[in-house]
Amino acid sequence: MKILESLHDRLPETGKLQRIVIVSPETGARYLSAVLVRIPAGHEFPLHTHPLSEDCFFALSGSGEAIEPGASISISAPSCVWIPVGHPHGLRAGPAGMLELGVQAPPDPTAVACDPHAAAATPPGLLTQALSASPGSTGPSAEWIPLFPRRPGLRYLDPCYATLSTSGRLVAEAGEGELLVIAAQGAVNLTSAGDRRLSALGALLLNPGAAVTLHAVEGPALLIGISARAPSSKPPPATEPNGQPGSPGSGRAAERRR
Hints:
With 258 residues, this protein is an all-beta fold. The protein contains no helices and 18 strands. Strand 14 (178-190) and strand 15 (196-198) form a beta hairpin.
């Protein structure tokens, strides 16, 4: 288990592009990598591809546009964008900038520049989905909500999220893969790990077979969970980070394709 209680101090507002690695193979992760990027207003990452990895990124604050050949999709926090393996994509921050969490499975540091004209015939592939920052229930137990349960293609990673009211609880279980949990807002205690706390922008990486109970102490607490598995394993049905089948019938977030 790897715990980063808060990353706020490592990514201050400076008006410049900043990037920190949360987890990677160099820090002990097996199946995924994750970075946190503070993007200044108007900054653009042009079209590029990651030939080996399935990707997703989360807008944690601010707004902007996710870009693919011939199209752009407006996004605002909190939201998620899913990118198929090798699909051309880019990102443009809006007037307030953006705080972005990017995740890859398997890790692929290669970014191949993409000629927009050559990629013009590429069919749409990006999916976007908003995250609700309001708890769906005031009860003591919350559930993970799967993102993009109907997406096509390879499934090296499964992103989910949950929103907890104060005193709400949530079980995070890695199952056979790894599970990365990010506290996007609020704060939670890890009640089965010595009451360690994840404040906003805190991160937790669970190894295969590990589990922890999260208890919200500052609500609403918006938690992001990304489970990842070995590339050679057969992709299972859509799952939540506790290893249980995900239900697309939550009605709390709308999946969108352009």
